Amino acid sequence: MYGPTSVRRNDLALLRQSRINARFAEEQLNEVNQYIIMGDSAYNKDSHLTSYHKLNHMIENHIKWNKAMKHVRISIEWNYGITGTLYKYTRSKNKLNFFNSSRVSKINTVAPLFRNFHIMCYGRQTSKYFQLEIPQGMLVNYIHQIDFK
Question: Same domain, yes or no, for 80 and 146?
């Protein structure tokens, strides 16, 4: 999560401003397993950021990759719906007025955090879809790793 920022910025400008690729690379500097972030197809591919392969340059492996990522990306979109379902306040345009951006940014930072807490306690359709069990003590581990700066 990154922000708050001006609504005048487009996604690519925010991507550059956030330095998400560099920050993700720094976090994994000495790690054996290197993870990548699946981003929008408008984003440039980078060391730790990727997207779908373009149709005009695809080989068989690219087709398989796109198909696999399509299923994962759908599960990511579920998170937005879950947050709105758990915290109706995040869907209320009257309460999240445009001119109170500090309040909106706080709500849009805290609501997904609480959503994650809820999922670790009760599970969710994403974990059921991928047949994953949430390990015991996951919530405590998660909270200990949060940087509350």
Answer: yes
